[in-house]
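Changelog-adjacent note: as of this version, every example in the card shows the full chain rather than a window. The one below runs 127 residues end to end.
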Amino acid sequence: MEYAKQEQHLNQLIVKLGDNPVNADLLYIEQRELWQSLAFSKAQVALWLASLPLANVGSNTQAQYKVTPDLTQHLLALLQQAGGRIPLAQVLKKLPAGITTSEQQIRKLAQQHAQLDIKGPLLVLVN
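Full-length structure tokens:
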């Protein structure tokens, strides 16, 4: 598919979604040729759909798709495997594919979660 045709198809799709919203999985299946021409994965389709203005995706206020994995659960699993302590620098290297975050964001998450704590350069599991 050439660029102009892809753009036209996306614009038509946005209009269609305003009349009849669908979830990301169904959209990926229904428009497989378009997504393949754009080299979009299911996750990228979900992100594209989530980025549309609410007016374009109907009045459904509940998201029908999950884009990101639960980072807190991943951190807890990492800490359990590492014996309860792991350097923050290592945590950043062991994040799931597609997750980008910073040390500051992990520190903030640890402050907000009852089972996580920061001790110097370490992320610690609190019992």
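Structural remarks: The CA atoms of residues 44 and 67 lie 9 Å apart.
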